[in-house]
Write a structure and sequence with these properties.
mainly beta, four-stranded antiparallel sheet, 19 strands, about 60% strand, globular
Length: about 190
């Protein structure tokens, strides 16, 4: 793959967002080792997520868009005119995404089409985001914080702080995990 940006497992497939000369979303089928372009022409595709039979992704530039595709070749905008959408996570019908350039985390609640800002810190540069039953978790490049917001809340809670170059991020039933490439470590904190 030329310049893979993100990866997500869902619906029995592995989904890749690919930037570079041929930006697209790719679906890989581990049962027969085949891959195919799901949606092409996706201008700097970045974060990718999957839930409820749909793949979701961000287009960092030029348009700053969060998109979804319920079927092959069919891309639909969820949010446009965003300032550097970097990553996307989906849980319980809520779509979360980070806007690195403006320092926001936004949520599109199930059944709605308008993004709501759940966190804003213009100097934070939020990057990776994941979501599970307890809420959405993201990392901030500048502060080294791991933050969290509940699915119904609008107030961020700091889960961990003081870690250099924090990303990527993962959650399971009991912990939040992140890598610190600058420190060469994988960290964990209980939820």
């Amino acid at each position: 793959l030329d310049n893979p940006a993100d990866i997500e497992a869902g619906g029995g497939f592995i989904w890749f967002s690919v930037s570079g000369a041929n930006p697209r979303i790719i679906r890989y089928d581990p049962s027969d080792l085949s891959s195919r372009t799901w949606v092409s022409g996706q201008g700097n595709a970045h974060g990718v997520g999957y839930a409820g039979g749909q793949v979701y992704w961000t287009q960092y530039q030029p348009a700053g868009t969060v998109r979804t595709s319920p079927s092959e070749g069919n891309a639909q905008d969820l949010a446009t005119a965003q300032a550097g959408p970097r990553d996307v996570a989906v849980f319980g019908g809520n779509v979360y995404f980070t806007n690195q350039t403006e320092g926001t985390v936004k949520r599109i609640a199930a059944g709605t089409t308008t993004p709501v800002t759940v966190h804003s810190d213009p100097s934070s540069q939020p990057l990776s985001i994941v979501a599970d039953a307890s809420g959405a978790y993201w990392v901030e490049l500048v502060s080294g914080k791991v933050q969290m917001v509940s699915h119904t809340g609008n107030a961020a809670v700091t889960v961990a702080a003081g870690h250099a170059l924090v990303q990527p991020l993962a959650v399971d039933a009991v912990s939040v995990y992140w890598a610190s490439p600058g420190g060469g470590t994988v960290m964990r904190v209980a939820k």
